[in-house]
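Customer escalation, tier 2.

The customer says the design service returned an amino acid string that "doesn't look like it belongs to this structure." They asked us to rerun it and document both sides in this ticket. The original C-alpha cells are below, unchanged.
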C-alpha cells in the first residue's frame, strides 16, 4: 500500500560514494532514507530474485516509518545500470528528484572488479581478463544463480555512463537530476553534501560528522561471506525476526568487522590504464557535455600527467 511516495532516489553508480551520501543523508532530521539503503525494487531486469523488496508490499513497507520528513527516498545503485528502473520510478513519481553519482569510468571498472571479488561473485581475479569477458564467456565459466553476471552484467557496458544518464534526463529533465562526482566528494565532502541538501530542498546548514564508508576490502573468511549472501531458510527466518536496525548492525559486524579487512589495492598497470583511458575518451566527452561538467581530468593527457591512482 502506497501510504508514502518517495520523492528522491540516489540511483548510482556503484563505487561512487553513494554509501557515504546515503548514510549522511540518513542523519539529517528532514531526510528519510530506507533501511536497507538499496532495496533495488525498480531494477527488475538486473536480477528479480536478488532483492526481497521486489515485492510491492514489502517495498512500500520500507516507508512506513516516515515521520513527516521532507525528503523521502532510497539509494539503489543498480538503478543507473538498469534499463527499466528510470521508467519504473517515473511511473511512481514523475516529480521525483534523481541524484546520480559518477566517477572516472576507468577507476570505476577497477573498483567494481574489486567489489565483485570481495562479494565472491567474480571468479576471475585478473582484472584485465575479467573486464573483457562477455555474457557468453561468463556462462561458460559458470555463474551462481544469484550472481550479477547471471543477468548479463558486463563491466564495459556498466562504465558507459552517458547512455545510463540519458535515460534519467529524458524521463525527468535536467532540473530534476543532480550530479555529484566522486572527485567532488574527495575534494570537499561538506560542499558535495550541502549541494545535495539544497537540491532536495532541505536545510543545508546541517553538518554531520563525516566518516569514510565502503572503503576497499578483502575477504578474511570467504565461508562467512557465502553464508551472509546465501538464501538459506535459516538466514531468512533470522532476518525476518529482527528489526531492520538490528539486522543492519549484525550485517556490519559480520561483514565489515569479522569476515573482511581493509585493503589498499595495488595500482592499475600504467599501460593498461592508458589503453582504457583512450578507449573511454569519447564516452567521457559525451558525458561531460551531457552533465555540464568539465571532465578533462579523465581524458588521456590528464590521466598520463596525474599518475596512476588507486582504485577504491
Amino acid at each position: 500500500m502506497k501510504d508514502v511516495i518517495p520523492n528522491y532516489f540516489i540511483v548510482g553508480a556503484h563505487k561512487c560514494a553513494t554509501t557515504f551520501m546515503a548514510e549522511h543523508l540518513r542523519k539529517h532530521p528532514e531526510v528519510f532514507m530506507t533501511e536497507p539503503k538499496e532495496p533495488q525494487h525498480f531494477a527488475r531486469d538486473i536480477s528479480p530474485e536478488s532483492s526481497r523488496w521486489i515485492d510491492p508490499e514489502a517495498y512500500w513497507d520500507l516507508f512506513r516509518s516516515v515521520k513527516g520528513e521532507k525528503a523521502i527516498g532510497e539509494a539503489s545503485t543498480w538503478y543507473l545500470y538498469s534499463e527499466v528502473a528510470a521508467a519504473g520510478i517515473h511511473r511512481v513519481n514523475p516529480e521525483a528528484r534523481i541524484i546520480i553519482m559518477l566517477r572516472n569510468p576507468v577507476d570505476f571498472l577497477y573498483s567494481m572488479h574489486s567489489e565483485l571479488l570481495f562479494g565472491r561473485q567474480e571468479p576471475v581475479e585478473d582484472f584485465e581478463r575479467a573486464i573483457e569477458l562477455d555474457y557468453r564467456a561468463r556462462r561458460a565459466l559458470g555463474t551462481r544463480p544469484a550472481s550479477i553476471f547471471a543477468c548479463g552484467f558486463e563491466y564495459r557496458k556498466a562504465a558507459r555512463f552517458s547512455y545510463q544518464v540519458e535515460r534519467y534526463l529524458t524521463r525527468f529533465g535536467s532540473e530534476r537530476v543532480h550530479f555529484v562526482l566522486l572527485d567532488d566528494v574527495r575534494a570537499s565532502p561538506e560542499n558535495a553534501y550541502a549541494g545535495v541538501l539544497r537540491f532536495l530542498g532541505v536545510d543545508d546548514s546541517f553538518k554531520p560528522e563525516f566518516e569514510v564508508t565502503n572503503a576497499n576490502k578483502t575477504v578474511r573468511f570467504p565461508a562467512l561471506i557465502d553464508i551472509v549472501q546465501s538464501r538459506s531458510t535459516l538466514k531468512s527466518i533470522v532476518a525476518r525476526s529482527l528489526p531492520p536496525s538490528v539486522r543492519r548492525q549484525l550485517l556490519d559486524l559480520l561483514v565489515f568487522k569479522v569476515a573482511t579487512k581493509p585493503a589498499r589495492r595495488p595500482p592499475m598497470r600504467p599501460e593498461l590504464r592508458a589503453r582504457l583511458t583512450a578507449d573511454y575518451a569519447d564516452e567521457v566527452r559525451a558525458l561531460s557535455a551531457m552533465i555540464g561538467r568539465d571532465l578533462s581530468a579523465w581524458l588521456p593527457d590528464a590521466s598520463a600527467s596525474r599518475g596512476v591512482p588507486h582504485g577504491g
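Tier 2 assessment: The sequence is consistent with the input. Strands lie at 8-10, 31-33, 71-75, 97-102, 177-181, 217-219, 260-262. Residues 304-312 have pLDDT under 50 and may be disordered. Sent an explanation to the customer and offered a walkthrough call.
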